Amino acid sequence: MSGNVKVVSRFRPPNSLELKEGGDIVVDFDDSEGTTVKLRNGPTSGPEAAGFTFDRVFPMGTHQQDVFEYGIKETVDDVLNGYNGTIFAYGQTGSGKTFTMMGSDIDSEDLKGIIPRITEQIFTNIAISPPHLEYLVKVSYMEIYMERIRDLLAPQNDNLQIHEEKSRGVYIKGLSDYYVSDQSEVYEIMRQGGLARAVSSTNMNAESSRSHSIFLVTIQQRNTETGSQKSGNLYLVDLAGSEKVGKTGASGQTLEEAKKINKSLSALGMVINALTDGKSSHIPYRDSKLTRILQESLGGNSRTTLIINCSPCYYNQDETISTLRFGVRAKSIKNKARVNAELSPAELKALLKKAQADAARQQAYITALETEVKRWRSGAQVAESEWADLSKVVVGASAGESGTIAPASASRPPSTRPITPAIEALRESRPETPSSGSMDKDERDEFLRRENELADQVTERENALKETRAKLQEAEDELAFLREREAELSETNKTYAKDSEELKLAHDRLIYEHKETTISVDILKEQIQDLHTEIEDLRRSANEPGRSATGVGQSADPAQADRDRKKAELVGQMMEGYTAGAFTALEQQVRESLSKLDLVAGDKGNLSSEDIAKIKGLFDDSQSVARENTERAQQAEEQNKLLAQSRDELEDRFAKLEAEYDELLDKTMQNDETNATGYNDAAQEVRLKLEAQYASKREAHLGEIADLKRQLELRANEKAKLQNNHEVLRSAYDELKRALAVTSAAADGGKNLAEEAREMERVRRSMTTQLAEFDNMRKNLMRDLQNRCEKVVELELALDTTREHSNNLIRNSNVKSQAKKMAHLEHNLNNLVRVQKSLVDQNTQLKKDINASTKKLMNRQDRIAQLEQQFAEAQADLKRANERFDDQVANLKQAMSHRQAKPAGAQTGAALGFGRIAKPIRGGGPIGQPGPQPGPGAAAQGLRHPGIASAQAQSIDSSSPKARSSWFFSATK
Ligand SMILES: Nc1ncnc2c1ncn2[C@@H]1O[C@H](COP(=O)(O)OP(=O)(O)OP(=O)(O)O)[C@@H](O)[C@H]1O
User: Fold this and answer.
1) Which residue intervals define the domain Kinesin motor in the entry (predicted)?
2) Tally of CB atoms within 10 A around 633
3) 869-913 pLDDT per residue, tens
4) How far apart are CA 153 and CA 185, in angstroms?
5) Do 528 and 836 touch, CB atoms closer than 8 A?
């Protein structure tokens, strides 16, 4: 039965992109029959002026169910009746092919596409078919991605080859197929396969199919009464969309995909052109995998429906026109569909019997011919009526019997080939590649056989090449990874080595700095020591007066001894005048005068005028001595006054000092309060020391003042005593003067010698007494003088010391500059203390840093060692991995050779248990009920079979493009 390809067109609603671009609709569907679509701004003349006419046109908003009902449903009946069927969707990317074929929600009655509806319909039809009809339904799912056929139910098989055999027609070798007994199993397989499909996001479609997908349903029908069989293959093809890469924005892998897609679609166009132009003798099916697979569907043994999907919008007008033209061309393709039937045993037996009879007849005919030939050769004449004739051959009852020779009445030459209509019918019932040229059948068979062999070899080589490439890639990746790792490690090592070097340098530098710091600290310590010594000296110098005031008599130190010595010298100098001076000489003269007087008293009149002059001189001397004494007493009094003055001055200065010190102390206290934390213990200590110094100095000064007071009293006493002595001396002088006057008078007058002698005696006695008294007085006076001189010297020394002390005090405590110096010193001391502290801190910190750095260094060294160890381990691991890899390669090779030894079917069967057992479904019975020899409930089990799950897992892993996320790819549904 021949017929044209059926073409229906479907327009989807405008999408968001088109609406963004204006959303102008450029198509009209105004014919009543629903078979024509017109372009609003289309040509007004020519074949397209009336629009594009198809078997059916589905405008925007057509329901999935309507598309199925009015465009597809009858194909299901065809396939169940043993025809091959093909439904494929063609259109630009994003035009709704997948939406039409699969739908957007398998669980939604409205949204599920035609494939779910077809499979549902298949099971519905089976269910209502007569009970003596038994069906086997199996499905396969594949895609053509980048010109490689990939089994979507076993995605690891991604380079399947197309074979063609006389008996089977075109088929995919090694494609897994699954027996299904109800709709849910089909859905499950759709989901599993869909997960492995290649989709990508483009500007035109968020989930653009990057491959042509082919869902193959094979239905075998057996008449249990007659044993006859029919089988039909239904190809449900969702083509990848043609795309303008400028619009889709394809680049990289998507661009490569687009190139392949467009290439195979143009091959499809070429096939359609060749089929429809009426002049091509060669149809280029072999130009692409797609056209090769669809070979039977396009101009062959198939009832084919093409769904062309279009956009209604101006934005895609060019693509829409091109699609509509494609549809129009395809519509004129003529197919020769026939039932793929197999005869029942009875029919076959009859046929055999008939064939045997024919053979016997032929044999009888041959025998008759041979007999006739012999007669002719022997020169005999054979009458025409006796000529051998097939129609006259009479065959015996049994098949093997030779038939009798009928008279030859062959009006036409006998055919060289036996004609067996039944066998011919059988042959014709199988799908067959349309003859491609002048090859006769044997040649074509041989060609196909050879082609298949070569295809297998190509596949093997390609697979081997692929494996090798994969291994090579793996090895290269691993090598790259290892190199990278090694580079990283060596980089890390370098970094560590550099770090380590830096750390070492830092360590050395720290040690060096530490040493330097230690040296600086030592220097500072020395400076501090010096400062301490200076402070100590200052303190000592501040304490000196106090010690000198309180330490008289404790002259253990050299200063005190020096002072004592000085004092002794001064006293010696002072006393010198008195011991060797006037008093001694005067005393001598007085004694001489007295002895002379004694002589005068004894000789009575022996006293000469010279003696008298001498005595007179002696009196004069006594008078001058008395004067000197008076002067000295006056001088002592003046000195006393001066001492009192200096004492007062000292007291004043002391008072001032005290006041200034108090002020300074107050300020210091205030500073202490405001800078409670600023001044440290050292300042406090200095202050305390200064206070102590001040207290001790004050004490010393008070003691000195008391001492000076005492000395002044003593001086006053001495002055009184000196005045007394002066008085005594004056009276002695007066006495001597009077005696001299008497003596002078006696010498001058010579009168009354007795009286004069008495008077002389009296004078002499009085003078002796006075001399004794004077002697005593002199002794006392000398003692007193000695004491006074000592006191004066002591006072002078004390005054000097006090002055010095006072000066020191002024220098140390009172003077502003001294205060500044003190403050400066204190500041320096504080600074030094701070510096020392910070140095100590730094030193400590440095030590810590060194420790930390050393630890870090050690850590890093440990780390380096660890890393080196890891590196060594990694290298060992790498070595082991290499060995393992080699082992694996060897194992794989072995496994491959084993596998190659096994039949191909066994492989798939071993990998996937689900659906490998045929599940005959009877007509008239409940859907899914097993037939007479059902599999052990494998169908239901198969849905949850780990094989599928593993296939699913593999598909996710192995598919390079991303998997579709629509409903039928969701494993939860
Ligand atoms: N008739 C329709 N009604 C509603 N939405 C539709 C229709 N046709 C398509 N769509 C929506 O348009 C978008 C693109 O559709 P789809 O993926 O089926 O296009 P496609 O032709 O298969 O594209 P590609 O060739 O890129 O795979 C989807 O979101 C789909 O749901």
Assistant:
1) 4-333
2) 18
3) 777 887 887 888 788 778 877 777 776 666 555 444 434 333 444
4) 13
5) yes
- Residue 242: beta bridge partners? 92
Rg of the chain on CA atoms, in Å: 74
Atom of ligand 1 nearest to the CA of 62: 1
Which ranges constitute the DSSP H helices of 32-168?
64-67, 73-80, 97-101, 114-128
Most confident of 267-271, 320-324, 460-464, 594-598: 320-324
Q: Assess whether the C-beta atom of 94 lies below 6 angstroms from ligand 1.
A: yes
Residue keyed to tokens 């750095």: 853
* 3-state secondary structure (DSSP) of residue 299: coil
Task: Tell me, using a 6 A CB cutoff, whether residue 240 lines ligand 1.
Answer: yes
| Bridge partners, 136 (sequence order) | 220
Query: Which letter, b or e, does each residue of 260-281 get, where b requires 16 or more Cβ atoms within 10 Å of its Cβ?
Result: bbbebbebbbbbbebbbeeeee
pLDDT for res 609:
61
ipTM, two decimals, is 0.98
Are 375 and 382 contacting, i.e. CB atoms less than 8 angstroms apart? yes
Indicate the residue type of 808: N
**Residues in binding site for ATP:** 91-98
Partners of 222 in beta bridges = 134, 229
Residue nearest to atom 16 of ligand 1 (CA): 96
How many other C-beta atoms lie within 10 A of the C-beta of residue 210? 27
Closest ligand 1 atom to 239 CA: 25
Of ligand 1's atoms, which has the minimum distance to the CA of residue 241?
25
Q: Residue 318 and residue 250: Cα distance in Å, rounded?
A: 19
Neighbour tally for 166: CB within 10 Å = 15
Q: According to the 3-state scheme, what is the secondary structure of 215-252?
A: EEEEEEEEECCCCCEEEEEEEEEECCCECCHHHHCCCC
Phi, psi (deg, nearest 5) at residue 965: -105, 10
How far is 940 from 323, CA to CA, in rounded Å?
A: 42
Distance from the CA of 949 to the center of ligand 1, in angstroms? 28
pTM over 0.90: no
Count of CB atoms within 10 A of residue 597's CB? Answer: 22
Q: Identify whether the C-beta of residue 86 lies closer than 8 Å to the C-beta of residue 303.
A: yes
Pick among 2.40.420.20, 3.60.110.10, 3.40.630.90, 3.40.850.10: CATH of 3-342:
3.40.850.10
Who contacts 188 (Cβ-Cβ below 8 Å, separation ≥6)? Answer: 943, 948
Residues annotated in a binding site: 91-98
Closest CA to 771 of 611, 622, 591: 591
The three-state secondary structure class of 170 is strand
For 541-550, the pLDDT digits (tens) are 656 554 444 4
